[in-house]
Amino acid sequence: MRFLLCLGLLVLSQFGLAHTKLLSQSPAAKATVNAPTQLTLSFNEALEPAFCHIHLFNAQQKEIPLAKPVFVSEPANTLSIPLPPLAAGEYLVKWSVVSQDGHRVKSSYSFTVKPRD
């Protein structure tokens, strides 16, 4: 009986340690793509919209001005943002989100825009 109680507590404690995870992004990490018009991030749990931020930097580390992210799903776990026309080159996406349980998670990834034909 004690074993089952300990096992139950261990399983439940793992749920408490779970944090928001990025499930997918478009453009994908390390992808080489034609100039995208939209950036989309999808997470494994609902987010607090007021505390979600996306920043985009070009190869010269200059920040590209972006609008605020728009949530495109319910629950609010997928956000999208229109992109301005992007020149060929490498771009760095830095994102920061807060889940509805109050945990902040942040990370970054890069993608490359192909030269126009």
From TrEMBL:
Record-level GO cellular component terms: periplasmic space; plasma membrane
Keyword Protein biosynthesis applies: no
Any one Gene Ontology BP term: copper ion transport
Role played: Involved in copper resistance.
Signal peptide (UniProt feature, chain positions): 1-18
UniProt keyword list: Copper, Metal-binding, Periplasm, Signal
Localisation per UniProt entry: Periplasm
NCBIfam families registered for this protein in UniProt: copper_CopC (NF033814)
Domain CopC: 19-113
Family: Belongs to the CopC family.
Organism: Agitococcus lubricus
Major place of residence: periplasm
Classification via InterPro entries: CopC-like (IPR047685), CopC/D (IPR032694), CopC_dom (IPR007348), Cu-Rt/internalin_Ig-like (IPR014755), Ig_E-set (IPR014756)
Molecular-function GO terms, alphabetical: copper ion binding
Keyword Mitochondrion (UniProt): no
Transmembrane segments: none
Cited PANTHER family: INNER MEMBRANE PROTEIN YEBZ (PTHR34820)
Pfam assignment, any one: CopC
UniProt protein name: Copper resistance protein C
